[in-house]
Specification:
This protein has nine helices and nine strands. It is an alpha/beta fold. The strands form two sheets. It has a seven-stranded parallel β-sheet with strand order 3-2-1-4-5-6-7. A two-stranded parallel ribbon has the order 8-9. Strand 6, helix 7 and strand 7 form a beta-alpha-beta unit. Helix 4 crosses helix 5. The longest helix has 18 residues.
Length: 239
Amino acid sequence: MGEPIRVLHILQRMEAGGTQALLMNIYRKIDRTKVQFDFLVVYKEKQFYDDEIEKMGGHVYKLSFREDLNLPKFQKDLAVFFAQHHEYKIVHCHAYTIGYFCLKAAKKAGIPVRIAHSHNNETVHDIKYLPKLFMQRMFTKNATDLFACSEEAGKYLFKDKPFQVLKNAIDSQNFIADVDTRNAIRKELGLKDKFVVGHVGRLHPQKNHDFLIDVFAEIKKKKQSGRKRTFGLCAFSWK
């Protein structure tokens, strides 16, 4: 059997985030004798999935752009990277803020398949909004294929350009209800016999926690007005 096809995924970093979890779900299930994933990130620090990726035969290559914000150096580093790595025929970019530069370097290196992927249908309106908007428009210029996790995400980022919806995959077996596990965890958290509304996600404006808090408040009002049963709220979040 020959060497597996190596796909280079480009992200900000391999932290415990949504896009990263999606990629790892896929990575764990694919036949890695036929297809291998590698990752190019723009932080030098050790990251959440580094060890697992290495154990599965993948590599994590680290540039420093998000730490030093040195754009000329970043472009030079990309050119050097692709000059040293001729094994890639597919580059899959998940970060539109750096995507233009990465896909441009991949195109210049002669990589035939260059994918731009949209994972969101909105951009946070903060001080970086206008630069982000500009980079969104530049994202597709050097791409050969456009992927989106939904119709809304594709239309938002790619406008009137044709794209393919690639729905986020999960292992449904991990979410099958188990009474024993449920009872054990509720007991551990002190939530036995309580009505609980849970949330799991990072504390970021994109997750719309203001709205979530309003929803929690309304649920609490309804529950407390109709019965005397104990009420609990539980939120698991990370930065």
